[in-house]
Amino acid sequence: MDKKRGRPMASHDVRVTPEFRDNPDIEKLGRALIAVAISIAQQKEAEEKASMMDSSDSEGAGVT
Question: Cα–Cα distance between 64 and 56 in angstroms, integer?
Fold first, then answer.
């Protein structure tokens, strides 16, 4: 009687099927693209800050 609790160790494969439309909602598509662009920019900024922190830590490590 071993009950599994919590999240599974691995997720199941998922298949996404595109749904084509005759008249796509241009405004909704534009908002989605802007959100993706903002997300990518924030991720790059966070990576740059992390690399700057790492480089500044290594420069100051030899000074006592």
Answer: 15
